[in-house]
């Protein structure tokens, strides 16, 4: 099945796009987290969201969740690893699943953590964003796993079951030890190094760990890795007033298009992106 649209990201921009596509009865898939966005739930008090003065992030999350549920909108719990133009539409890879859509709305926010140096240079040559897709390639090998969120710890544990040795870099407090073959270095990772493919991970203090692969399990994927040929402007996706990117049928909304990083800007852009996607679909 080819969906009318695929929305990537469940923050305010993605939520707004989803509400509008639903109202217009489009057949769309919405990929992200059912817990929505940590940038909403972790906010202490929000004073600039019209109609919700001094609301907590948790209260706003609950209000969004209730609206999504009442409108019977589904979220497919998944991290999208790549988007590729394919035969006049788009193909999306999310873990081991594959989806097709006529239009794509990128609502991925901005990443909390910066990518490692040279990370994207070694993508597909030892750097992976997907334990399920690529874990099997590292059976009995030595790997590094950078885990950006406790939500992905089960994927790190799965990798530890396959690999001989795992250097584990959790980026959150109170992480578990995973398994006996896991080492937790005290230094943070800095850069991926390689020759034909990945050969090591350089740490902040200069130490080089020899590894066969590096798994980056984070809340977001670097945009240049997610969708090659996407035109960027100062580290954000370049869009016009219709939230259209340089790629036909691909729109973007929210923090990923630039500052100010605000809920209402994201919601507004999600709305515009959905309407532009609807217009684009009508023109096909
Ligand atoms: C602590 C805190 C307090 C804040 N307070 C305020 C405030 O008071 N007022 C205000 O206006 N703004 C505030 N902000 C800013 C606001 O949170 C952001 O501007 C807003 O959340 C951006 O919405 P977004 O939808 O663009 O992205 P996000 O909210 O970042 O959501 C993007 C979502 O997409 C997901 N995602 C990314 N890549 C992928 C992928 N490849 N596949 C699937 N899912 C993916 C992410 O995991 C995330 O859930 C605050 C931010 C923080 C961190």
Uncertain stretches of 5 or more adjacent residues = none
Query: In CATH, what is the homologous superfamily of the largest domain?
Result: FAD/NAD(P)-binding domain
Mean pLDDT: 94
Principal-axis shape: globular
CATH architecture of the largest domain: 3-Layer(bba) Sandwich
What binds here, in terms of ligands, is: flavin-adenine dinucleotide
| Through-space gap between termini | 17 Å
Q: Can you count the beta strands? A: 17
> Radius of gyration over alpha carbons?
19 Å
Helix count equals: 7
Q: Which class do the helix and strand fractions yield?
A: alpha/beta
User: Which range best describes the helical content: under 10%, 10-25%, 25-40%, 40-55%, 55-70% or over 70%?
Assistant: 10-25%
Overall number of domains = 2
CATH class of the largest domain: Alpha Beta
Order of helices and strands: EHEHHEEEEEHEHEEEEEEHEEEH
CATH topology annotation of the largest domain: FAD/NAD(P)-binding domain
Task: Give a brief description.
This protein has 284 residues and is of the alpha/beta class. The protein contains 7 helices and 17 strands.
How is this fold's topology laid out?
Layout: E1 2-8, H1 12-23, E2 28-32, H2 38-41, H3 57-70, E3 76-77, E4 80-86, E5 89-94, E6 97-106, E7 127-128, H4 131-134, E8 142-147, H5 153-162, E9 165-170, E10 182-183, E11 189-194, E12 198-203, E13 208-210, E14 213-217, H6 223-226, E15 232-233, E16 236-237, E17 250-252, H7 263-283
Parallel strand pairs: 1-2, 1-6, 2-3, 6-17, 7-14, 8-9, 8-14, 9-10
Antiparallel strand pairs: 4-5, 5-6, 11-12, 12-13, 15-16
Helix pairs in contact: 1-7
Bound molecules: flavin-adenine dinucleotide (FAD).
Flavin-adenine dinucleotide (FAD) binds at residues 8-14, 31-33, 37, 39-40, 42-43, 46, 48, 79-80, 107-109, 219-221, 226, 254-255, 261-264, 266.
């Amino acid at each position: 099945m080819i969906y009318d649209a695929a929305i990537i990201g469940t923050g305010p921009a993605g939520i707004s796009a989803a509400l509008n596509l639903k109202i217009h009865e489009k057949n769309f898939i919405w990929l992200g987290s059912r817990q929505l966005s940590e940038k909403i739930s972790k906010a202490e008090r929000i004073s600039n969201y019209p109609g919700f003065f001094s609301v907590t992030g948790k209260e706003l999350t609950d209000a969004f969740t209730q609206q999504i549920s009442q409108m019977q909108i589904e979220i497919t719990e998944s991290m999208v690893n790549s988007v590729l133009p394919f035969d006049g539409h788009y193909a999306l890879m999310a873990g081991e699943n594959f989806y097709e859509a006529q239009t794509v709305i990128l609502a991925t926010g901005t990443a909390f953590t910066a990518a490692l140096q040279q990370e994207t240079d070694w993508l597909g040559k030892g750097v992976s964003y997907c334990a399920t897709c690529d874990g099997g390639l590292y059976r009995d090998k030595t790997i590094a796993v950078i885990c950006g969120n406790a939500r992905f710890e089960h994927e790190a544990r799965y990798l530890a079951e396959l690999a001989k040795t795992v250097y584990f870099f959790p980026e959150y407090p109170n992480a578990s030890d995973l398994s006996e073959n896991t080492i937790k270095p005290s230094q943070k990772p800095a850069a991926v190094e390689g020759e034909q493919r990945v050969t090591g991970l350089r740490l902040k203090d200069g130490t080089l760990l020899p590894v066969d692969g590096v798994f980056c399990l984070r809340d977001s994927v670097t945009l240049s890795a997610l969708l090659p040929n996407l035109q960027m402007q100062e580290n954000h996706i370049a869009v016009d007033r219709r939230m259209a990117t340089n790629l036909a049928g691909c729109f973007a909304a929210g923090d990923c298009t630039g500052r100010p990083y605000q809920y209402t800007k994201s919601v507004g852009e999600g709305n515009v992106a959905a309407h532009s996607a609807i217009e684009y679909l009508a023109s096909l």
